[in-house]
Design goal:
Layout: E1 8-15, E2 24-30, E3 36-42, E4 45-46, E5 54-59, H1 62-66, E6 71-75, H2 81-84, H3 87-94, E7 98-100, H4 102-114, E8 123-125, E9 131-134, E10 137-143, E11 152-158, E12 161-165, H5 183-192, E13 194-200, H6 213-225, E14 231-234, H7 240-252, E15 256-260, H8 262-273, H9 286-291, E16 297-301, H10 311-317, E17 330-333, H11 342-354, E18 358-360, H12 376-386, E19 388-394, H13 398-410, E20 415-416, E21 423-428, E22 433-437, E23 442-446, E24 449-452, H14 456-467, E25 469-476, E26 482-491, H15 498-517, H16 527-546, E27 551-558
Parallel strand pairs: 3-6, 6-7, 7-8, 12-13, 13-19, 14-16, 14-17, 15-16, 17-18, 19-20, 25-27
Antiparallel strand pairs: 1-2, 1-21, 2-3, 4-5, 5-23, 9-10, 10-11, 11-12, 21-22, 23-24, 25-26
Helix pairs in contact: 5-12, 6-7, 10-11, 15-16
The chain binds zinc ion (2 copies).
The site of one zinc ion has 6 residues, from helix 2.
Amino acid sequence: MAKSSNDELVFLPLGGSNEIGMNFNLYGYGPPDDRKWIVVDLGVTFGDQTTPGVEVILPDPEFMEQNADRLLGIVLTHAHEDHIGAVAHLWPRFKAPIYATPFTAFILREKLREAGLLDEAEITIVPLGGTIELGPFKLELITLTHSIPEPNGLAIRTPLGTILHTGDWKIDPDPLLGGPTDIDAIRKLGDEGVLAMVCDSTNVFVDGHAGSEADVRKALIPLIASFKGKVAVACFASNVARMDSVIRAAEANGRRVCLVGRSMHRMAAAAKSVGLMTDLKPFVDDSEAKRLPANGVLYLCTGSQGEPRAALSRIAEGTHPHVNLGANDACVFSSRVIPGNDVPIRNLQNKLTERGVRLYTERDHPGIHVSGHPCRDELAQMYAWARPEIAVPTHGERRHLMEHAAFARDLQVPQQVTPRNGDMVRLAPGRAEIIDEVTAGRLYVDAGVVVPEHGEALRERRHAAYNGMLAVSVVLDGRGKIVSGPQVRALGLPTESEEHLDEVLNDLADEAETALRRMKGHDLEMDEAIEKAISRGVKKASQRIWGRRPVVETTVLRV
Ligand SMILES: [Zn+2]
Ligand SMILES: [Zn+2]
């Protein structure tokens, strides 16, 4: 495609820049009023204590929705939740064809099936190292190494220059499953000329190398050999190479493997669908595992992050229907602590310890986990291979992105640009710069409903969680004369005793009545005005009693 004089090449992150999670990257090409777009990755992030009841958080797709008619395709680099988790939620809003390698496509299909979208969404399976042509964008997949099968970097060639979008990566010389990093392809791209490298920043503060999966396997075999009782190993199910290592370490020690947790089964099936883990002994199921001697079984579990409903938490609570661990048993955490999960993981580990289970974590046994993201030496290596003109750090919080930009400067990369979600960066022509800002933000999946980040329901729930709630009801006649009540009920508000509670509620009812009696004329015929006045009065009194302003819900009934 020939370039016209006012064509531009832009990069627009709508998620994943200034955070680790919910990656959502757009590339645009063409004149400002008629750009064609591609999306690279569409992931989720997860809720925490500040978002009670909200587990899944999506990037706000407003910009892409408005430009849906110019979206040529959605390309997925790999199957981690922070890269594909939002597809099933947001795809109906732009409905572009999806491109993914076989393993990623397998995982995505299941998600789309659950969402009832499988028949509607068009997924094109691209082989590893394959190419995709989308209008002015000519993409080539580059095999990298990470912590899931089939991680792909993307060479995105356009008439205004080539981008290397790394996705998530590390340099693992011996990844065990799948090929090593395709160094030749990256070098060749470097020779050809790379305009910009949009690159993973997760481990920019860590010196050296992330380490190889092969070393983890070597460390796990003797560790598991040292156990006499039952052993549970927790890792991310999506880390299929790790699953494979744990299973082989179990086999080497005469232990049969029992998978515990839904995602372990799902990932094992996905791995087998692409020809991985096919030469292993069959797994034993829960009831078979129970009949094996303690030193003849290894439980491979989900829940390394302390997720309350996952297998390991239930084992720690003693509520798992099939697996119980106690004195003489061991639990190996072949995983890291994801920032933000420190507290649930600590609670989980305390509960296991309470049962007498011995714990083995990366902290005291450094060989049993390696990261899937590039440390500084690996980043330097990648810059040396690709030799980009512009460094665009992504997949990091602000501090990661800024450190990554400084690191790239030290490596003599001529330009660095560090956009936030919503910042549109013009990569060419001219020097790279932020030229526009579009809507970016988060959407919450709240009880299955997609709601705005600052929506009413969660705000109220949070308010009620911190301050409690009061329900006031009063029955009036048509002219506003009290027939019965007001009555007040409290939820989540402390009192010294039952009697004291009655006293307090009576005081609040008096307060409600006073507020009502102060109202005159026409106002007494309007329920909404009455509810407002009563709520205001009761809130004020609550402030006096508890030093708090609870949620007050007033109901007026007319007879
Ligand atoms: Zn990621
Ligand atoms: Zn990843």
